[in-house]
Fold:
Amino acid sequence: MIDLARLPRLVKDRWASTRRDLGMISLLLQGKHPPPLIPIAAQAVTESAVQPRALRVEQVVRETPDALTLWLTDPSGAALRCLPGQFFTVLVPVAGKLERRAYSASHYVADGSRLALTCKRIAGGKVSSFLHEYAHPGMLLQVLGPSGQFGVTPQPGLARKLVLIGGGSGITPLWAIAQAVLAEEAASTVTLLYGNRSRADIIFADALGELGKAHPQRLVLRHVLSEPSPDFASGSGILDQATITQELGALGCLGRDADYFVCGPQPMMEAARAVLLREGVAPARIHEERFATPQLAQEELPSTTQTVELAHKGQTTLVSVAPTETILEAGLRHGVMLPFSCTMGGCGACKAKLAEGSVAQPEPNCLTSQERQAGQVLLCVSHPRTRCRITVP
Ligand SMILES: Cc1cc2nc3c(=O)[nH]c(=O)nc-3n(C[C@H](O)[C@H](O)[C@H](O)COP(=O)(O)OP(=O)(O)OC[C@H]3O[C@@H](n4cnc5c(N)ncnc54)[C@H](O)[C@@H]3O)c2cc1C
Ligand code: FES
Structure:
Protein backbone atom coordinates (compact mmCIF):
# COMPACT_ATOMS: atom_id res chain seq x y z
CA MET A 1 0.00 0.00 0.00
CA ILE A 2 1.36 3.42 -0.95
CA ASP A 3 2.01 5.78 2.00
CA LEU A 4 0.35 9.04 0.85
CA ALA A 5 2.07 11.14 3.49
CA ARG A 6 5.50 10.37 1.99
CA LEU A 7 4.64 11.41 -1.55
CA PRO A 8 5.19 14.91 -2.94
CA ARG A 9 1.91 16.78 -3.26
CA LEU A 10 1.48 16.63 -7.05
CA VAL A 11 2.14 12.88 -7.21
CA LYS A 12 -0.09 12.42 -4.19
CA ASP A 13 -2.95 14.34 -5.84
CA ARG A 14 -2.62 12.29 -9.02
CA TRP A 15 -2.52 9.04 -7.05
CA ALA A 16 -5.51 10.05 -4.91
CA SER A 17 -7.66 10.97 -7.91
CA THR A 18 -6.67 7.77 -9.78
CA ARG A 19 -7.54 5.75 -6.69
CA ARG A 20 -10.92 7.51 -6.43
CA ASP A 21 -11.68 6.91 -10.12
CA LEU A 22 -10.70 3.23 -9.83
CA GLY A 23 -12.93 2.91 -6.77
CA MET A 24 -15.87 4.39 -8.67
CA ILE A 25 -15.29 2.14 -11.70
CA SER A 26 -15.09 -0.88 -9.43
CA LEU A 27 -18.40 0.06 -7.74
CA LEU A 28 -20.07 0.57 -11.14
CA LEU A 29 -18.79 -2.84 -12.35
CA GLN A 30 -20.37 -4.38 -9.26
CA GLY A 31 -23.66 -2.74 -10.24
CA LYS A 32 -23.50 -0.29 -7.29
CA HIS A 33 -23.89 3.48 -7.43
CA PRO A 34 -20.75 5.33 -6.32
CA PRO A 35 -21.24 8.18 -3.82
CA PRO A 36 -21.55 11.65 -5.36
CA LEU A 37 -18.21 13.43 -5.58
CA ILE A 38 -19.40 16.45 -3.64
CA PRO A 39 -22.49 15.42 -1.74
CA ILE A 40 -24.73 18.42 -1.23
CA ALA A 41 -26.45 19.17 2.04
CA ALA A 42 -29.78 17.50 2.66
CA GLN A 43 -32.66 19.39 1.06
CA ALA A 44 -35.23 18.55 3.69
CA VAL A 45 -36.53 21.53 5.63
CA THR A 46 -36.18 20.70 9.29
CA GLU A 47 -38.21 22.04 12.19
CA SER A 48 -35.35 24.40 13.14
CA ALA A 49 -35.51 25.95 9.67
CA VAL A 50 -38.92 27.46 10.38
CA GLN A 51 -39.06 27.61 14.20
CA PRO A 52 -36.44 29.93 15.67
CA ARG A 53 -34.57 28.83 18.76
CA ALA A 54 -32.95 31.10 21.32
CA LEU A 55 -29.20 30.60 21.40
CA ARG A 56 -26.95 32.09 24.06
CA VAL A 57 -23.94 34.17 23.10
CA GLU A 58 -21.05 32.59 25.03
CA GLN A 59 -18.21 34.64 23.64
CA VAL A 60 -17.63 37.54 21.27
CA VAL A 61 -14.28 37.40 19.47
CA ARG A 62 -13.02 40.37 17.51
CA GLU A 63 -11.39 39.01 14.36
CA THR A 64 -10.55 42.28 12.57
CA PRO A 65 -11.55 45.93 13.17
CA ASP A 66 -14.87 45.25 11.41
CA ALA A 67 -15.51 41.52 11.85
CA LEU A 68 -16.48 39.60 14.96
CA THR A 69 -17.35 36.02 15.75
CA LEU A 70 -20.24 35.11 18.01
CA TRP A 71 -19.83 31.74 19.71
CA LEU A 72 -23.30 30.40 20.50
CA THR A 73 -24.71 27.48 22.45
CA ASP A 74 -28.21 26.13 22.91
CA PRO A 75 -29.14 26.64 26.61
CA SER A 76 -31.14 23.38 26.44
CA GLY A 77 -27.90 21.54 25.68
CA ALA A 78 -29.14 20.48 22.22
CA ALA A 79 -26.48 20.07 19.56
CA LEU A 80 -26.12 22.73 16.88
CA ARG A 81 -25.34 20.57 13.91
CA CYS A 82 -24.88 21.69 10.34
CA LEU A 83 -22.87 20.70 7.33
CA PRO A 84 -19.73 22.74 6.68
CA GLY A 85 -20.75 25.59 4.38
CA GLN A 86 -24.35 25.95 5.57
CA PHE A 87 -25.78 29.12 7.09
CA PHE A 88 -28.10 30.13 9.92
CA THR A 89 -30.60 32.99 9.91
CA VAL A 90 -30.40 35.48 12.78
CA LEU A 91 -33.53 37.43 13.75
CA VAL A 92 -33.02 40.74 15.49
CA PRO A 93 -35.40 43.61 16.23
CA VAL A 94 -34.20 46.82 14.60
CA ALA A 95 -36.32 49.99 14.82
CA GLY A 96 -39.43 48.00 15.73
CA LYS A 97 -39.10 45.49 12.87
CA LEU A 98 -37.85 41.92 13.07
CA GLU A 99 -34.98 41.76 10.59
CA ARG A 100 -33.54 38.46 9.31
CA ARG A 101 -30.07 37.96 7.95
CA ALA A 102 -28.09 34.88 7.01
CA TYR A 103 -24.68 34.11 8.53
CA SER A 104 -22.62 31.09 7.55
CA ALA A 105 -21.40 28.74 10.26
CA SER A 106 -17.80 29.89 10.23
CA HIS A 107 -16.08 27.09 12.16
CA TYR A 108 -16.32 23.34 11.94
CA VAL A 109 -17.42 21.93 15.30
CA ALA A 110 -17.66 18.17 14.83
CA ASP A 111 -19.83 17.45 17.89
CA GLY A 112 -22.18 20.41 17.40
CA SER A 113 -21.54 21.59 20.96
CA ARG A 114 -21.37 25.22 19.79
CA LEU A 115 -21.83 27.34 16.74
CA ALA A 116 -19.74 30.21 15.42
CA LEU A 117 -21.19 32.98 13.26
CA THR A 118 -18.82 35.64 11.97
CA CYS A 119 -20.30 38.97 10.99
CA LYS A 120 -18.59 41.75 9.11
CA ARG A 121 -19.98 45.20 9.81
CA ILE A 122 -21.48 46.84 6.73
CA ALA A 123 -21.54 50.65 6.85
CA GLY A 124 -25.15 51.60 7.59
CA GLY A 125 -26.18 47.93 7.73
CA LYS A 126 -29.05 47.27 10.12
CA VAL A 127 -28.27 43.81 11.44
CA SER A 128 -24.48 43.80 11.21
CA SER A 129 -24.41 47.15 13.07
CA PHE A 130 -26.84 45.80 15.68
CA LEU A 131 -24.68 42.72 16.30
CA HIS A 132 -21.50 44.78 16.49
CA GLU A 133 -23.04 47.24 18.92
CA TYR A 134 -25.14 45.01 21.16
CA ALA A 135 -23.92 41.39 21.06
CA HIS A 136 -22.42 40.37 24.41
CA PRO A 137 -21.93 37.18 26.42
CA GLY A 138 -25.20 36.05 27.99
CA MET A 139 -27.37 37.65 25.31
CA LEU A 140 -30.01 35.42 23.68
CA LEU A 141 -30.31 35.49 19.90
CA GLN A 142 -33.19 34.07 17.88
CA VAL A 143 -31.72 31.80 15.23
CA LEU A 144 -33.17 29.66 12.44
CA GLY A 145 -31.42 26.95 10.52
CA PRO A 146 -29.24 25.43 9.36
CA SER A 147 -30.07 26.06 5.71
CA GLY A 148 -28.39 26.06 2.36
CA GLN A 149 -26.89 23.70 -0.14
CA PHE A 150 -23.41 25.20 -0.40
CA GLY A 151 -20.77 23.00 1.17
CA VAL A 152 -19.61 19.47 1.62
CA THR A 153 -20.49 16.38 3.56
CA PRO A 154 -17.14 15.16 4.90
CA GLN A 155 -16.54 11.50 4.08
CA PRO A 156 -13.36 9.86 5.40
CA GLY A 157 -13.14 7.54 2.37
CA LEU A 158 -12.92 10.38 -0.16
CA ALA A 159 -9.71 11.73 -1.65
CA ARG A 160 -10.64 14.98 -3.31
CA LYS A 161 -9.04 18.18 -4.34
CA LEU A 162 -10.87 21.30 -3.21
CA VAL A 163 -10.01 24.78 -4.37
CA LEU A 164 -11.58 27.54 -2.29
CA ILE A 165 -11.72 31.09 -3.66
CA GLY A 166 -12.80 33.72 -1.17
CA GLY A 167 -12.90 37.45 -0.66
CA GLY A 168 -13.46 39.41 2.57
CA SER A 169 -16.26 37.98 4.72
CA GLY A 170 -16.76 35.28 2.06
CA ILE A 171 -14.14 33.31 3.97
CA THR A 172 -16.74 32.21 6.56
CA PRO A 173 -18.23 29.11 4.87
CA LEU A 174 -14.88 28.33 3.22
CA TRP A 175 -13.10 28.27 6.56
CA ALA A 176 -15.60 25.74 7.92
CA ILE A 177 -15.24 23.62 4.77
CA ALA A 178 -11.43 23.70 4.93
CA GLN A 179 -11.36 22.72 8.59
CA ALA A 180 -13.87 19.90 8.09
CA VAL A 181 -12.23 18.38 5.03
CA LEU A 182 -8.76 18.51 6.55
CA ALA A 183 -10.02 16.99 9.81
CA GLU A 184 -12.18 14.24 8.33
CA GLU A 185 -10.66 13.28 4.98
CA ALA A 186 -7.04 12.23 5.40
CA ALA A 187 -6.47 11.90 1.64
CA SER A 188 -8.12 15.17 0.50
CA THR A 189 -6.28 18.42 -0.23
CA VAL A 190 -7.40 22.04 0.06
CA THR A 191 -6.08 25.14 -1.66
CA LEU A 192 -7.38 28.51 -0.48
CA LEU A 193 -7.00 31.66 -2.55
CA TYR A 194 -8.15 34.52 -0.34
CA GLY A 195 -8.40 38.18 -1.34
CA ASN A 196 -8.53 41.17 1.02
CA ARG A 197 -7.60 44.81 1.05
CA SER A 198 -4.83 44.70 3.67
CA ARG A 199 -3.25 42.36 6.22
CA ALA A 200 -5.46 43.87 8.94
CA ASP A 201 -8.63 42.88 7.02
CA ILE A 202 -7.85 39.16 6.84
CA ILE A 203 -10.45 37.34 8.91
CA PHE A 204 -8.98 34.27 10.70
CA ALA A 205 -5.47 35.26 9.56
CA ASP A 206 -3.67 33.59 12.48
CA ALA A 207 -5.91 30.54 12.55
CA LEU A 208 -5.41 30.05 8.81
CA GLY A 209 -1.67 30.16 9.33
CA GLU A 210 -1.95 27.60 12.15
CA LEU A 211 -4.05 25.26 10.02
CA GLY A 212 -1.48 25.56 7.24
CA LYS A 213 1.28 24.55 9.68
CA ALA A 214 -0.79 21.62 10.94
CA HIS A 215 -1.36 20.30 7.38
CA PRO A 216 1.70 21.36 5.36
CA GLN A 217 1.11 18.62 2.77
CA ARG A 218 -2.62 19.12 2.38
CA LEU A 219 -3.39 22.83 2.75
CA VAL A 220 -2.02 25.50 0.45
CA LEU A 221 -2.84 29.08 1.43
CA ARG A 222 -2.41 32.02 -0.87
CA HIS A 223 -3.33 35.54 0.22
CA VAL A 224 -3.84 38.31 -2.31
CA LEU A 225 -3.95 41.89 -1.01
CA SER A 226 -4.81 45.05 -2.88
CA GLU A 227 -2.68 46.93 -0.32
CA PRO A 228 0.11 44.43 0.36
CA SER A 229 2.65 44.98 3.14
CA PRO A 230 6.34 44.08 2.82
CA ASP A 231 6.30 41.97 6.01
CA PHE A 232 3.49 39.67 4.84
CA ALA A 233 3.79 37.13 2.01
CA SER A 234 0.99 37.68 -0.49
CA GLY A 235 0.14 38.31 -4.08
CA SER A 236 -0.90 41.80 -4.95
CA GLY A 237 -4.03 43.12 -6.62
CA ILE A 238 -7.72 42.31 -6.53
CA LEU A 239 -9.18 38.94 -7.44
CA ASP A 240 -10.21 39.83 -10.98
CA GLN A 241 -9.96 37.47 -13.94
CA ALA A 242 -6.29 38.22 -14.64
CA THR A 243 -5.20 37.75 -11.01
CA ILE A 244 -7.30 34.63 -10.47
CA THR A 245 -5.92 33.06 -13.67
CA GLN A 246 -2.37 33.90 -12.68
CA GLU A 247 -2.70 32.79 -9.06
CA LEU A 248 -4.55 29.53 -9.73
CA GLY A 249 -2.16 28.77 -12.58
CA ALA A 250 0.86 29.29 -10.31
CA LEU A 251 -0.75 27.07 -7.66
CA GLY A 252 -1.40 24.32 -10.23
CA CYS A 253 -5.13 24.63 -9.60
CA LEU A 254 -6.55 25.22 -13.05
CA GLY A 255 -7.28 21.55 -13.67
CA ARG A 256 -10.53 19.76 -14.31
CA ASP A 257 -10.12 17.31 -11.44
CA ALA A 258 -10.81 19.80 -8.63
CA ASP A 259 -14.02 21.07 -7.07
CA TYR A 260 -14.21 24.84 -6.65
CA PHE A 261 -16.03 26.64 -3.85
CA VAL A 262 -16.39 30.38 -4.35
CA CYS A 263 -17.71 33.01 -1.94
CA GLY A 264 -17.02 36.72 -1.86
CA PRO A 265 -17.98 40.03 -3.45
CA GLN A 266 -20.07 39.74 -6.61
CA PRO A 267 -17.34 40.95 -9.05
CA MET A 268 -14.89 38.40 -7.63
CA MET A 269 -17.46 35.62 -7.98
CA GLU A 270 -18.19 36.56 -11.58
CA ALA A 271 -14.47 36.71 -12.36
CA ALA A 272 -13.84 33.30 -10.77
CA ARG A 273 -16.72 31.69 -12.66
CA ALA A 274 -15.55 33.17 -15.97
CA VAL A 275 -11.98 31.91 -15.43
CA LEU A 276 -13.05 28.43 -14.37
CA LEU A 277 -15.49 27.98 -17.27
CA ARG A 278 -12.89 29.28 -19.71
CA GLU A 279 -10.43 26.70 -18.36
CA GLY A 280 -12.92 23.94 -19.05
CA VAL A 281 -14.04 23.28 -15.46
CA ALA A 282 -17.44 21.55 -15.54
CA PRO A 283 -20.20 23.83 -14.17
CA ALA A 284 -21.19 21.07 -11.73
CA ARG A 285 -17.76 21.43 -10.11
CA ILE A 286 -18.24 25.16 -9.44
CA HIS A 287 -20.10 25.80 -6.18
CA GLU A 288 -21.03 29.36 -5.27
CA GLU A 289 -22.47 31.12 -2.24
CA ARG A 290 -23.70 34.68 -2.67
CA PHE A 291 -24.00 36.90 0.37
CA ALA A 292 -26.17 39.38 -1.49
CA THR A 293 -29.82 38.58 -2.04
CA PRO A 294 -30.60 38.40 -5.76
CA GLN A 295 -33.01 41.14 -6.79
CA LEU A 296 -35.35 41.48 -9.74
CA ALA A 297 -34.72 44.52 -11.91
CA GLN A 298 -37.48 47.13 -11.81
CA GLU A 299 -38.64 46.14 -15.33
CA GLU A 300 -38.98 42.47 -14.27
CA LEU A 301 -41.43 43.32 -11.48
CA PRO A 302 -45.13 43.01 -12.37
CA SER A 303 -46.74 46.36 -13.15
CA THR A 304 -50.14 45.61 -11.61
CA THR A 305 -51.56 44.00 -8.48
CA GLN A 306 -52.36 40.32 -9.03
CA THR A 307 -54.57 37.83 -7.24
CA VAL A 308 -53.06 34.59 -5.90
CA GLU A 309 -55.12 31.64 -4.69
CA LEU A 310 -53.08 30.15 -1.83
CA ALA A 311 -54.07 26.62 -0.83
CA HIS A 312 -52.56 25.85 2.57
CA LYS A 313 -53.54 23.38 5.29
CA GLY A 314 -56.89 22.55 3.68
CA GLN A 315 -57.91 26.21 3.23
CA THR A 316 -57.78 28.39 0.16
CA THR A 317 -57.24 32.14 0.61
CA LEU A 318 -57.45 34.77 -2.11
CA VAL A 319 -54.52 37.13 -1.67
CA SER A 320 -53.93 40.37 -3.57
CA VAL A 321 -50.24 40.95 -4.19
CA ALA A 322 -48.97 44.47 -4.93
CA PRO A 323 -46.25 44.75 -7.63
CA THR A 324 -43.41 45.30 -5.15
CA GLU A 325 -44.64 42.69 -2.66
CA THR A 326 -43.56 39.05 -2.59
CA ILE A 327 -46.24 36.37 -2.37
CA LEU A 328 -44.93 35.52 1.11
CA GLU A 329 -45.32 39.10 2.33
CA ALA A 330 -48.82 39.36 0.88
CA GLY A 331 -49.85 35.96 2.28
CA LEU A 332 -48.66 36.86 5.78
CA ARG A 333 -50.43 40.23 5.51
CA HIS A 334 -53.64 38.32 4.75
CA GLY A 335 -53.08 36.13 7.84
CA VAL A 336 -52.01 32.96 6.04
CA MET A 337 -49.45 31.21 8.27
CA LEU A 338 -47.01 30.38 5.52
CA PRO A 339 -43.72 28.60 6.32
CA PHE A 340 -40.56 30.62 5.75
CA SER A 341 -37.07 31.11 7.12
CA CYS A 342 -34.31 33.04 5.33
CA THR A 343 -36.67 35.22 3.18
CA MET A 344 -34.01 35.53 0.49
CA GLY A 345 -34.37 32.43 -1.66
CA GLY A 346 -31.60 30.53 0.08
CA CYS A 347 -33.14 27.83 2.27
CA GLY A 348 -36.18 26.29 0.59
CA ALA A 349 -38.48 26.63 3.63
CA CYS A 350 -41.10 28.49 1.56
CA LYS A 351 -41.14 26.12 -1.43
CA ALA A 352 -44.59 25.73 -2.98
CA LYS A 353 -46.15 24.35 -6.15
CA LEU A 354 -47.32 26.76 -8.82
CA ALA A 355 -50.39 24.98 -10.17
CA GLU A 356 -51.51 27.79 -12.47
CA GLY A 357 -50.17 31.16 -13.65
CA SER A 358 -46.69 32.64 -13.86
CA VAL A 359 -44.32 34.27 -11.37
CA ALA A 360 -41.09 36.26 -11.60
CA GLN A 361 -38.39 35.08 -9.20
CA PRO A 362 -34.76 36.22 -9.10
CA GLU A 363 -31.94 33.82 -9.91
CA PRO A 364 -29.87 32.25 -8.59
CA ASN A 365 -31.86 30.72 -5.77
CA CYS A 366 -31.88 27.41 -3.95
CA LEU A 367 -34.28 25.62 -6.34
CA THR A 368 -32.74 22.86 -8.40
CA SER A 369 -33.44 22.80 -12.14
CA GLN A 370 -35.64 19.72 -11.58
CA GLU A 371 -37.68 21.59 -8.95
CA ARG A 372 -38.03 24.57 -11.28
CA GLN A 373 -39.20 22.30 -14.09
CA ALA A 374 -41.67 20.65 -11.73
CA GLY A 375 -43.26 24.06 -11.08
CA GLN A 376 -41.78 24.72 -7.63
CA VAL A 377 -41.50 28.38 -6.62
CA LEU A 378 -40.08 30.20 -3.61
CA LEU A 379 -42.80 32.35 -2.08
CA CYS A 380 -40.28 34.67 -0.35
CA VAL A 381 -38.83 35.99 -3.62
CA SER A 382 -41.69 35.40 -6.08
CA HIS A 383 -43.87 38.10 -7.62
CA PRO A 384 -47.00 37.00 -9.56
CA ARG A 385 -47.06 38.09 -13.21
CA THR A 386 -50.60 36.79 -13.71
CA ARG A 387 -53.37 35.41 -11.56
CA CYS A 388 -51.88 32.32 -9.88
CA ARG A 389 -52.95 29.22 -8.02
CA ILE A 390 -50.36 27.95 -5.56
CA THR A 391 -50.36 24.91 -3.31
CA VAL A 392 -48.26 25.24 -0.15
CA PRO A 393 -47.21 21.94 1.49
C1 LIG B 1 -26.34 32.68 2.50
C2 LIG B 1 -25.72 33.92 3.13
C3 LIG B 1 -24.71 33.78 4.06
C4 LIG B 1 -24.12 34.91 4.62
N1 LIG B 1 -23.10 34.76 5.52
C5 LIG B 1 -22.50 35.86 6.03
C6 LIG B 1 -21.42 35.70 6.95
O1 LIG B 1 -21.01 34.61 7.31
N2 LIG B 1 -20.85 36.85 7.44
C7 LIG B 1 -21.28 38.11 7.08
O2 LIG B 1 -20.72 39.10 7.56
N3 LIG B 1 -22.32 38.26 6.22
C8 LIG B 1 -22.94 37.17 5.71
N4 LIG B 1 -24.00 37.32 4.85
C9 LIG B 1 -24.52 38.69 4.61
C10 LIG B 1 -25.53 39.03 5.73
O3 LIG B 1 -26.66 38.19 5.62
C11 LIG B 1 -26.04 40.48 5.63
O4 LIG B 1 -26.49 40.70 4.33
C12 LIG B 1 -24.99 41.49 6.01
O5 LIG B 1 -24.57 41.30 7.35
C13 LIG B 1 -25.56 42.92 5.85
O6 LIG B 1 -26.73 43.02 6.61
P1 LIG B 1 -27.13 44.40 7.27
O7 LIG B 1 -28.48 44.27 7.85
O8 LIG B 1 -26.05 44.89 8.14
O9 LIG B 1 -27.17 45.38 5.99
P2 LIG B 1 -28.52 45.93 5.28
O10 LIG B 1 -29.20 46.89 6.20
O11 LIG B 1 -29.31 44.75 4.78
O12 LIG B 1 -27.90 46.65 4.03
C14 LIG B 1 -27.24 47.93 4.12
C15 LIG B 1 -26.58 48.23 2.78
O13 LIG B 1 -25.45 47.40 2.61
C16 LIG B 1 -25.55 46.64 1.40
N5 LIG B 1 -25.07 45.28 1.72
C17 LIG B 1 -25.77 44.28 2.29
N6 LIG B 1 -25.00 43.19 2.46
C18 LIG B 1 -23.78 43.53 1.98
C19 LIG B 1 -22.55 42.83 1.88
N7 LIG B 1 -22.41 41.53 2.31
N8 LIG B 1 -21.50 43.48 1.33
C20 LIG B 1 -21.61 44.77 0.91
N9 LIG B 1 -22.75 45.47 0.98
C21 LIG B 1 -23.82 44.87 1.50
C22 LIG B 1 -27.03 46.64 1.05
O14 LIG B 1 -27.21 46.51 -0.36
C23 LIG B 1 -27.49 47.99 1.56
O15 LIG B 1 -27.22 48.99 0.63
C24 LIG B 1 -24.59 36.20 4.27
C25 LIG B 1 -25.64 36.33 3.35
C26 LIG B 1 -26.18 35.21 2.78
C27 LIG B 1 -27.29 35.38 1.78
S1 FES C 1 -37.73 31.48 3.13
FE1 FES C 1 -35.82 30.62 2.56
S2 FES C 1 -36.08 30.29 0.44
FE2 FES C 1 -37.84 31.33 1.01
